[in-house]
Specification:
The protein is α/β, with parallel strands linked by helices and 360 residues long. It contains 13 helices and ten strands.
């Protein structure tokens, strides 16, 4: 139990007060132009006040054409800076470390939001257009510029979103990325864009700016052993401060039959990590679940749905080691009391079995 509430020091930047990280959670509460709304600020500040060691924003798109969903937070324009500055200060005032997740949806961008989406290569299934080499370089530079914007706003760091089939994960996939230049072909080439983004942020921002990387090892054309190799390379290089593995379920086995027989998480906890910290996300809904992730070899636990259900999940686990999240479905009133605005509650109502119907 004590491990969860011991401060977590990192190679760079401030220590986290405990081993709980708020997952970057889609909430659809920002303004249409990507500016922070009062509802989104309230949602995130309430989690910082609820005891999270690291409070992370939802995915924030680094280019207008990289928007992945309505009401998404943006970090591609200086007009978004005042809201970001206000948010960073509010999170710090609650004693939590702050981070912006940097994102581009790629071929997962809805056409009604962005027009023609883009992708590493032409993608007939989604209608996405392959990026030119110049556009890939611009994408890299816009991730770096977004990190500098977060730094200027007062955030302690950023997380690069390389998971869930968004554009950086699309570059990692040999099925989706069919490029023949230096960003395609071998795994080293397919990972090059993420490496250049991380190295570019490290060079452009202050020495103690904290950099995380989110990876997922399955689905969306990804192969477990390739993602393990990418993770190992980032852990060896030490340019990131933490690796956030999004597993959908921290207790599951791999989907690839040849790698079953051991937990998916084990493929990452056994990698040498030097000074880089490792965390995992996926159905951590109780104090026991969080302790199990630490016992399995992680340095921190990434809390998603449990943080939606209780803004003060870390504080509740501290008070009661056996605390378990409320059973689903919950009422819209419950979610409003936990700091979700109307747009976020509407979004969660689309998740089967999460929000009770009015007739229930």
């Amino acid at each position: 139990m004590s491990d969860l509430f011991e401060p977590l020091s990192l190679a760079r930047g401030p220590a986290w007060r405990n081993r709980f990280m708020l997952a970057p959670l889609t909430n659809q509460q920002s303004h249409a132009d990507g500016r922070l709304s009062d509802d989104e600020q309230r949602w995130l500040t309430k989690r910082a006040a609820g005891g999270f060691g690291l409070t992370m924003t939802a995915a924030a798109h680094v280019q207008p054409g990289g928007q992945g969903f309505p009401g998404q937070l943006g970090i591609f324009d200086d007009a978004q800076a005042p809201g970001l500055t206000r948010l960073a200060a509010a999170i710090r005032a609650e004693g939590s470390v702050s981070s912006v997740q940097l994102h581009h949806a790629g071929n997962r961008s809805p056409a009604e939001l962005v027009g023609t989406p883009v992708c590493p290569s032409d993608d007939p299934d989604t209608g996405a257009r392959g990026l030119s080499l110049t556009e890939v370089e611009r994408l890299r530079d816009d991730f770096i510029a977004a990190a500098r914007r977060a730094e200027a706003a007062g955030f302690d760091g950023v997380e690069v979103h390389g998971a869930h089939g968004y554009i950086l994960a699309q570059f990692l996939s040999a099925d989706i990325n069919r490029r023949t230049d230096r960003y395609g072909g071998t795994l080293e080439n397919r990972a090059r864009l993420i490496v250049e983004i991380v190295d570019g942020i490290r060079a452009a921002c202050r020495p103690d700016f904290q950099i995380g990387l989110r990876l997922s090892p399955e689905r969306f054309g990804l192969k477990l052993m390739e993602i393990r190799e990418v993770a190992a390379a980032f852990l060896r290089a030490g340019a990131i401060d933490y690796l956030d593995m999004s597993l959908w379920d921290v207790a599951k086995e791999p989907v690839e039959p040849e790698h079953q027989g051991r937990p998916l998480l084990d493929y990452f906890t056994d990698l040498p990590r030097g000074g880089v910290r490792l965390g995992a996300a996926g159905k951590i809904m109780s104090g026991a679940d969080a302790r199990a992730v630490i016992a399995a070899g992680c340095d921190f636990a990434v809390i998603g749905r449990a943080a939606i259900l209780r803004h003060d999940f870390p504080a509740r686990v501290r008070a009661d080691p056996d605390f378990t999240s409320p059973a689903l479905p919950v009422t819209a009133r419950h979610l409003a009391d936990e700091g979700l605005g109307a747009a976020f509650i509407g979004y969660m109502s689309g998740w089967p079995g999460f929000v009770a119907s009015d007739a229930a």
